[in-house]
Amino acid sequence: MQIGEVAERTGLSLRTIRYYEEVGLVTPSARTRGGFRVYSEADAARLELVKRMKSLEFTLEETRLLCTVLSDLAAEPAPQERRELVDRLSTWCQEIDWRCALLRERLQIAEGLVTNLDRELSARTESEQAALECPPAASAWPSGWTGEAEYERERR
């Protein structure tokens, strides 16, 4: 598939995909005779992974390291190397799990803040509405004021 299709599928901009290619995170599987990039399903999946890593605030270098582990595992390495790669992948899983826990904690804090602000807004709205519905007490008017006619006289 061409870059436009990959962009639509992944939700990444063309510019972002080109940048990820420039920094070595993804390489198109091929190019057409006209020089257009052609991406495979694996390339699109790698871009999805890069997008997810970015949302968890991993650096480009960290993302590159995980992509390398996954690529090396896909190449069917020798048993000893495979065990080492699986161990590294397990470490990545733990790191990602830890970052997810932090995000859940941040989300709880944000939801609590929204709840408190909603309560405050409701209380303010209700008190303003009550003030509009109830006329002020007589003591709130200037002393000696008897009504609209007097107001008109004072205004002249």
Could you please describe the fold and organization of this structure?
With 156 residues, this protein is mainly alpha-helical. The chain is built from 6 helices and 2 strands, in the order H-H-E-E-H-H-H-H. The chain has helices at 3-10, 14-22, 41-55, 60-74, 79-133, 148-155; strands at 30-31, 37-38. The chain has a two-stranded antiparallel sheet with strand order 1-2. Helix 3 packs antiparallel against helix 4 (60-74) and helix 4 (60-74) packs across helix 5.
What value does the Rg take, in angstroms?
Answer: 31 Å
| Low-confidence runs of at least 5 consecutive residues | none
Quick check: average pLDDT?
Answer: 87
List the total number of helices: 6
Strand content: under 5%
**Major beta sheet summary:** 2 strands, antiparallel
Compose a concise summary of this entry.
The protein has 6 helices and 2 strands. It is mostly helical.
What topology emerges from the helices and strands here?
Elements: H1 3-10, H2 14-22, E1 30-31, E2 37-38, H3 41-55, H4 60-74, H5 79-133, H6 148-155
Antiparallel strand pairs: 1-2
Helix pairs in contact: 3-4, 4-5
